[in-house]
Structures are given as structure tokens and as C-alpha cells.
Amino acid sequence: MSETTQNIADLYDRYVMPTYSPAVALVSGKGSRVTDIDDMQYIDLTAGIATLACGHCHPQVTEAIARQAGLMPHCSNLYYNVNLALLAQRLAKLSGGYKSFFVNSGAEANENMVKLARLWGRESGRYEVIVFNKSFHGRTLAMCAATAQEKIQKGFDPMPTGFAYADFNDIESVKSAISEKTVAVMLEPIQAEGGVIPADPDFLTALAALCKERDLLLLMDEIQTGMGRTGTFFAWEGYGVKPDAFTLAKALGGGLPLSACLAKPELAALLHPGMLGTTFGGNPCACAAALAVIDVIEKEGLAARAAESGRLLREGLEAFMDGHPEILEVRGKGLLVGMVIEGSAAEFVDACRGMGVLCCTAGAHVVRFIPALNISEKDLEEALEIIGDVLDERAGTEA
Ligand SMILES: *Cc1c(COP(=O)(O)O)cnc(C)c1O
Question: How far apart are CA 268 and CA 92, in angstroms?
């Protein structure tokens, strides 16, 4: 290929709306190794922002997509979609009986979960959903309102109504946010974009009890935490708390756009044909990919592996704390890990990329590591070594 990163950057400048600030043009990947257009190689600790649970180009996922693309790449919802049915069956088995509605993105899945909650609240005249400060639920207008972060909402006023705000890990704050309009509480079991902040087990248990007592639905956004990332297939399994409905996206489609809103059957029973809909949702290629991803997660024991690799990663990062007071905390669960630093997380990420490791941020001071669940020990160790070099270099330049 004769194109370079510079050529592509020029095309972005001229023709693409300036919504991102990408640094390199990735063109191929295998497992946890990726190559950019200038032939630079990287160890990828972002996995497409927690999307490629099985790594880049897992042969089983690639083959499932290619096969379905040759049969029928799209099938409208006017007809039965075979892969969609098989995927819903698989998810019901994994979750213990939840029913699925498939859409295309995380934000859209959350929108549909909120619609379902409003439908359930209609009879009692309730519609308001309590969400949490530092949450992230997506970028549609309603999910901007549900995302309690100023930088996400700023400039897009007025925000849709129907949300109330509480502090994460603070049950009293939830209690004071409840009104006669409240119908549900929605949360990420681990706030990811907001800084990798796990829910306290005690908080989640108390929240579930409070929801039961006050007749509120408990809604979980498992878009980043689901699909084995935190050591169990769904993060709620690890907490021993069952939501009334929850959403999956990111890793579900093996890199293709696919998301799902899953609800207990009694909740799903409020729907009838025509109430919810989508053109692309549950696309046959995306569902084929999802079936392959679930196969691989199960066969290769990737949830357990995420727990083990996550431990290695956290211990490796914690070991740096000794000589590097810049690191304030290492936290997370499984392979959703955040390293809180004193300085700029974005600068840290840039420095890592310059040395051959891709990671990302979760807020101004948190460096986030969300590699493929099947990352090898060797890749993880090599990445840690490079992160150590970056830390040394920063300590050197700051001194
Ligand atoms: C990524 C993410 C979303 C939004 O997903 P999109 O596919 O970008 O709409 C919502 N919630 C959480 C927890 C996420 O990590």
C-alpha cells in the first residue's frame, strides 16, 4: 500500500467531521498484535475499546462472518432470521431465561431498555430512571441525558427529560433521588468510561433490595463489562445480583455492530409486534459472529482467563507503584483495568503508543487497559515491560 498515515490524516482534515483525534491508521491485526499503515507494530491493550473479546481476526469468528456474507448478508425483520433465533437461545441459556431484542449499538440498546422500563411504569404513571454521576450510556440524545458527564451533554441543550441523578456507590443518594415518578435505576456494574470504578458489592446488594422494596426496575448496562470481560460471562453474575433487564454491545458482535437489550420474560411480555423495531438490528452476519464469539469464550474458557490475566496485569502495574509515585491507584475487575495517575492520561497513552503499546483513557487521569480476553501471557508481559519504560522515561523527564 502506498498510502501513509499522513495521507489518511489529510483526508480526515478535508472530508471527515472533526469528532475524533486519531493518531495512527491501523490496517491489520492478529490476536493482540496490530499493524498500522506505515508498517509499525503494536501490542493492542484496547481491543477496539473492549470489542474484540477473542482478539483480532480469530479464525472461527472470521470464518463465521465470511460464510454468512456469502449466504445472505442481510435479512429484514419481515422474515425469520435463523442466526438471530439461535443467538437469542444462546443468550437465554447463558443468562437464565432473559429474552432478547437486537439492535446495532450500545446507545440504542440502552434506549430500548429505557423504553421497556417506561412501558412497565405506565400503569402507575412512572417514567423516571435514576442514573449515576460519571456514568456512560451512549451518545443518542436520551443517552446523553442518561450519561451524567458535562462534557457529553455540553452544547446539546435541551436534554431530554426523564432522568434523575445519584452518586455511584452511595445508597443514601439513590434513596433521596427517588420520587413518585421513579420507575427504574440504571447503572454500569463497573463504570468504565467514567474512570473504571467498580460498584461496591455491598452497594449493589443494597441497591437490588431497595429496588425490590420500592417496586423499581434494576437495569444494568453491561455493554463494556459483559461477554466474560470481568471474569464471569455477565458482570452481574460476579456480584450475585440479577437485573430485571440489561444490555450488551461492544464484544457481542465480534467486531460487527450488534447490541442486545435482554429482559426477564414477564417484562418482555409487555411488548407486542410493532412497538419496537430496527432495520439492521440482529443482522445475520453480526449474529453469526456473536455465535462464534460465544463458542470461543466458552471453549477457550475466556472468562476465567480474563480473571487470571487481569490479576497478572493489575499485579504488574501495582509493582510499578513502588518506584513511581505518579501512579495513585490500580483498580478494576478481570480485564477491565484502570491505572490512576497524577498527570495526563492522554499524554501517557501517547507515550505508550510511541513505544508500541496501545491503551486508552477513561477520563483525564485514568489510563484504561481492556485487551482481548485471550491475550497471551507473553504479550501481556512485553506490554508491561514497555509501560515500565514509559514510566521510567516520564520520571526521568520530570525530575
Ligand atoms: C460503549 C458504551 C456505550 C455506548 O455504546 P455505543 O455502541 O457507542 O453506542 C454504552 N454504555 C457503555 C457502558 C459503554 O461502554
Answer: 13
